[in-house]
Amino acid sequence: MIVDCALYHHGVREVADGSWATALATARTQDRSFMWVGLHDPTKEELDKVAGEFGLHKLAVEDALNAHQRPKLEEYDDSLFVVLKTVRYDEVSQQIELGDVMLFVGDSFVVSVRHGEGRALGDVRKRLEAHEDFLDCGPSAVMYAIADRVVDDYTDIALEVETDIEEVEERVFSPVRTNDASRIYNLKREVIEFRRAVLPLVEPMAKLAAGGVPHVHERMRPFFRDVADHAIRVSEQVQGFDDLLSSVLSANLAQVGVQQNEDMRRISAWVAIAAVPTMIAGVYGMNFDHMPELGWTWSYPAVLVVMAGICLGLYRGFRRTGWL
Amino acid sequence: MIVDCALYHHGVREVADGSWATALATARTQDRSFMWVGLHDPTKEELDKVAGEFGLHKLAVEDALNAHQRPKLEEYDDSLFVVLKTVRYDEVSQQIELGDVMLFVGDSFVVSVRHGEGRALGDVRKRLEAHEDFLDCGPSAVMYAIADRVVDDYTDIALEVETDIEEVEERVFSPVRTNDASRIYNLKREVIEFRRAVLPLVEPMAKLAAGGVPHVHERMRPFFRDVADHAIRVSEQVQGFDDLLSSVLSANLAQVGVQQNEDMRRISAWVAIAAVPTMIAGVYGMNFDHMPELGWTWSYPAVLVVMAGICLGLYRGFRRTGWL
Amino acid sequence: MIVDCALYHHGVREVADGSWATALATARTQDRSFMWVGLHDPTKEELDKVAGEFGLHKLAVEDALNAHQRPKLEEYDDSLFVVLKTVRYDEVSQQIELGDVMLFVGDSFVVSVRHGEGRALGDVRKRLEAHEDFLDCGPSAVMYAIADRVVDDYTDIALEVETDIEEVEERVFSPVRTNDASRIYNLKREVIEFRRAVLPLVEPMAKLAAGGVPHVHERMRPFFRDVADHAIRVSEQVQGFDDLLSSVLSANLAQVGVQQNEDMRRISAWVAIAAVPTMIAGVYGMNFDHMPELGWTWSYPAVLVVMAGICLGLYRGFRRTGWL
Amino acid sequence: MIVDCALYHHGVREVADGSWATALATARTQDRSFMWVGLHDPTKEELDKVAGEFGLHKLAVEDALNAHQRPKLEEYDDSLFVVLKTVRYDEVSQQIELGDVMLFVGDSFVVSVRHGEGRALGDVRKRLEAHEDFLDCGPSAVMYAIADRVVDDYTDIALEVETDIEEVEERVFSPVRTNDASRIYNLKREVIEFRRAVLPLVEPMAKLAAGGVPHVHERMRPFFRDVADHAIRVSEQVQGFDDLLSSVLSANLAQVGVQQNEDMRRISAWVAIAAVPTMIAGVYGMNFDHMPELGWTWSYPAVLVVMAGICLGLYRGFRRTGWL
Amino acid sequence: MIVDCALYHHGVREVADGSWATALATARTQDRSFMWVGLHDPTKEELDKVAGEFGLHKLAVEDALNAHQRPKLEEYDDSLFVVLKTVRYDEVSQQIELGDVMLFVGDSFVVSVRHGEGRALGDVRKRLEAHEDFLDCGPSAVMYAIADRVVDDYTDIALEVETDIEEVEERVFSPVRTNDASRIYNLKREVIEFRRAVLPLVEPMAKLAAGGVPHVHERMRPFFRDVADHAIRVSEQVQGFDDLLSSVLSANLAQVGVQQNEDMRRISAWVAIAAVPTMIAGVYGMNFDHMPELGWTWSYPAVLVVMAGICLGLYRGFRRTGWL
Fold first, then answer.
1. pLDDT (tens digit, 9 = 90+) per residue, C228-245?
2. How close C33 gets to chain E, by Cα (Å)?
3. For the residues A63-90, what does the mean pLDDT come to?
């Protein structure tokens, strides 16, 4: 689906009259002009049509058709092809969802292709159109704006993941007995996926920052360095999450084991306490003819008192050693 | 066994009349011509004959004779030698099986050698023959087509492994009590082997993409970059699998331990409950002469009620603390 | 908040009369002169004003406004932007707290921006002003002095962390039964955060030491090498802490498990000892008519002695095998 | 001990008449000639004599005297010094044994020094002497032949280690209850040692393959690349072994724990079953005067039936929940 | 404390008459002459005096004053500054102790500074003075001799650590029940510290071997390569120790757990055996009026025999399944 399509001249959106071909021809001949076509989940036909107009490379178009690419920057003869992974926190499933944004960047055009349910690029376009001098830097300004938005979303998601990890930490180390293995594992899984979205992005952004990539305006270089820097920061955070989750996983295992063992010890201690009066009662239940105590008047209450006393003594001893 | 052998001129398969020597001579003298010989599990004699015709290096031929090579790209004086690992999911043993495809690539010939039960290259040849302009790029187009097929198979297998891992995850974290250690370990084993097939492939493909390798058509470079990119994606996935499986293995250990401990706790709790009436019965089984309760009419039912009451109380208490 | 602002000429603080603009103009025209402006938690307005005066890049200013940056060194057209992480050990929460110090370094100015509750830079300024020849090297001397102070703080904190780890080690391996999982985990968490502050600092300092960075006085290079060297030392220490804490965590798990098992074994051994007299008493509690022992005079005391003897024997045996 | 010493001319072994000095002088003056001296566990005197004749560097000679070097390639003024680790599977101790082969390679001589009980180099010499054209490439052909043999032995040992690992895997996951921790640990130990022999070899071989090393015949380069490639393959295998063994170690721990817990559960379940009739018997062993059941004729067999019924019911229940 | 100070000319120790200044002036003017000053735990005053004489850089002097530096090589304008970590096995505390040796190396002087209780450098000096041709290579010969001694000590310590690890392995896998967690952990701690001494040394030594460092005699390069090589060997060993100790730690945990579980199983099995006669005795202790067996003459001994038989049967069964 073609979401939006416009011609920009000196950073100002122009009313595009006539067909694409005309608009593109205008963009190509006019100085400081470019077209920006935005697609969302395009069909093969739509993409082929766009590719034909802008002369995009077959391989890049094939990649752009399929979601689930990894972040990359590829230089073709007369355009750049950039893949970014968008992240979104799905409130319902409480999971991170990855989407794709692909960009074809030439001297006089940008084609943005979005896959999946991620955040729409409409407001990026609106914010850009409000900064004419910025947009005047050409297609690479659009590329920067989108990459910046994507990486900003990473930062937000990293914060949410951090909150999740802190929550799970609190549960693991709280005295309340819970087994959070499954939840920790799911977090780990998400973190691994998240890292796969962020880490490969660093290198292309650093390359754009280093300069020497065609179709990139010189003024944009520090901006891409900024994006690269934020991507590195997020990927370091994510690496830290991974380490923490490994530790939490084994800490959880330890805590659960310790708590279960404590329960067992407590139950066993009670059984041990009960075993003593049972033994004494057994002794006085024996049928020997000559057991003088049996005839004494006070021996029964005395035995009961002794039993109770031993049980109490054991109970106190167990409390003292921490077995109860 | 020689599977197929043909002469291509301007991307079109020509009827090869006469001996190989003639065909090869034609390929060598004619512009934009090359021979493609396909072998499957060749004997030493067959391979030696082919090597003699095409002037292949002794070391490469020796490697091509033995399966179980690692992926690599070697430049010899007048040919490239490429080893690729094919993967196949064996339905019967439910295991990944590795095979080998070796390629000798010269200016006017390609020799493909396939080992093991992997997918035949016949349909790669057919699809190539349908794209004349592509095949016209010469031997490196064949090399690309085969490498692309091999890496596409990796993607499929990675998906199957992912499904297997998800299955095993579900079993581990389900309330049903299973011990999946053995299965997880087997998956880990496969993933390690898979990684050994994929990872070393990245570098040679990147080298082919970077250019400067002889016998490779300039137009093929972005295609090899695409293969390299897919190989990296798969190898990142596989790395992620490895991490996940390590976590699943310890999560499984934790879950099994937790479940067994729960069982023990429950059994012990029942034993503890049974110990109380046994103790009380013991007391009233003692043979003291002066135990006034023994003579009372209602003491027996009263004691039974007390026993039942204590047991019920313990049962409820254990339920409340989660011990039962 | 603007903390301090001064003009330095030949390393000597001059009384700055007039506005900043005048002072800055003086610094720019006069040889070996520079301005040093110190800010603490500046508002957007303050920072924008400063940025306007000194011509700082928009992106750097944006970064300087937000705390929680990662350490980095960025070259802009006419200034360097350096981010350092300060560390502080909070006595109350017993945790490491990270702050930020950002520096804008040009040929004739330094702007230092401090975020958070970290140590003030006032005494760095005082110590510098006492070394005129040093301060005469210009803005990069200020940058060195601040980086040196920051890294010195790292060394102190590393020592405190080391003490904490040693304490926790002692607790884990002491015979006193404690479960330190939560404390070890918290230390691990701090160490991961600490590493994130230290590690990325090494590269920028090494770059400053290697030379070729504008606005850096040649004489300062060995000093930055010294800072880089200290940063590497701390980061190696921190890496070692991480390894140690992983080992301590599993050692703690082992110790706790071993101690709990010992408790269980001890309780079970006592239950086993009590089971034997219960069994014997049960035998002589049977109601058979023909049990000749029952009639003998000394059988009751004899049985008691036998019971006591068996219990004592079991007790000794269990002591010998270490079960008690 | 000097094992063998010969002069080769155009790849043919010549009868060496006269002293070493004469032979060496011949080798030095004659084109395409070289001497090969083979030593086994030489004494300091023997080695010093050889070193004097061939002008070997003091440091290399010192290294060659001591076993337990790490694989390396060192260039001295007029000779190369190569250290290779030989591996041998000792049938008696079932362990991998490492030995050393050191080579001094000059333009007109090879000195091979072997330490330990590894495989003799006699058959390498014989096989080389059968390939005159190969031997005609000079001392580097000898170096290749020995390196090739050494790495081939690695491949064999890797296969044996793989078999050992598979055996141990089968034992760990079989229902037979064994604790293989000690065996797995020993395998891990061997693998670590093995890796230390293989890994450092890759770089020198790659260097020899890359060319630019003196005393190495140009034609030998692809051969050294082949050796490097095999060394990489083995070292990847060994790395995989290490990963697998870590997983097997924890899987073994899990299995043993699970099996022991199962035993405990079973024993406890039996104790729980026995506790019920004991309790009931206790009740009817009480001495109350008014227990009407005691007088009924069928109550004894009825109680026995009830006891048996409850035990059977518990047994079946425990079987169903998998506790027995 | 100044330990020794001498002037060397053509490798021969000369009687230094007059002040340092004179001696140094002589060394500076005379060809192939240099001074060697040896310090041990110098005070700030001593070091400042030496620094003043030899023109040492302030930063290097500051580092030399403080122990606990990391190994490094720093080039200053007219001298090298080298830090080496000495290791020593303290017999009393059975721990590795690290010390520092710092060297200032110029064209005509060496200043060696030793911290801590490590081995004195006196015998290095004596051995060097016995090799005039070696000492004639100038200050870098002294630097080599000291580095060589330091790394030789590493090799010795690595052997001691290896012995310690083997001892601990034997204890872990022996049937004797010990918990070596604390000892293994201490070894791990030492190994981490040891690695921190060895690893950073490799790079500076390799740099000295590669050439291009001022103040280093060309003839010394292979000697530094030798030191680098030994340092790499030790650091590989130490890395292997680290891996082994991690495995031993978990193997120890496993062994201890297995042994404790075995104990528990054995105790439980005995309790289970004792439960059966208790149950039977309970049955015949019931007070039913109609229990015909009670009146039979042989039922008491028969029941005893049955009890003994069941116990024996259980005992044998438990032995067979390995529960006892």
1. 999 999 999 999 999 999
2. 25
3. 90
Q: CA triplet A210, A214, A217: central angle to 5 degrees?
A: 70
Do D84 and E248 form a contact (C-beta atoms < 8 A)?
no
Q: How many CA atoms lie within 13 A of D58 on its CB side?
A: 5
Report the alpha-carbon angle A184-A185-A186, nearest 5. 90
Instruction: Give the total residue count for chain A.
Output: 324
Q: Which distant-in-sequence residues (6+ apart) come within 8 Å of A272 by Cβ?
A: A314, C267, C270, C271, C274
Q: What is the pLDDT of residue E140?
A: 94
Q: Going along chain E, which residue ranges are E strands?
A: 2-9, 12-14, 33-40, 72-75, 80-90, 95-105, 109-115
- B185, D247 in Cβ contact below 8 A? yes
pLDDT tens sequence across E7-39? 999 989 987 666 778 888 888 888 889 999 999
What token pair was written down for D82? 């190569």
Specify whether the CB–CB gap between C113 and C101 falls below 8 A.
yes
Q: Pairing between strand C33-40 and C109-115?
A: parallel
Tokens describing residue A47 = 């993409």
Measured distance CA(C141)–CA(C124) in Å, rounded: 11
Q: Which amino acid would we find at residue E120?
A: A
Q: Taking CA atoms, what residue in B is nearest to A297?
A: B290
Query: pLDDT tens for residues D49-82?
Result: 999 989 999 999 999 998 888 899 999 988 999 9
- How far is Cα B151 from Cα B154, in angstroms, rounded to an integer? 5
Return the pLDDT at D302. Answer: 93
User: How close does chain B come to A303, measured CA to CA in Å?
Assistant: 9
Q: How far apart are the first and last CA of chain C?
A: 68
Q: Which of C244, C267, C303 to mutate to test the interface with A (most CBs of A within 10 A)?
A: C267
Both ends of chain B: CA-CA distance in Å?
68
Q: Rounded CA gap, E198 and E154, in Å?
A: 8
Minimum distance, in Å, between the CA of residue A204 and any CA atom of chain C: 18
Residue showing tokens 């007070």: E287
H or E element in which residue A305 lies: helix A299-321
Cα dihedral D125, D126, D130, D135, rounded to 10, equals 10
Which of D83, D193, D248, D253 to mutate: most E Cβ within 10 Å? D253
Query: What is the number of residues in chain E?
Result: 324
Task: Determine, for residues C251 and E182 on separate chains, whether the beta-carbon distance falls below 8 Å.
Answer: yes
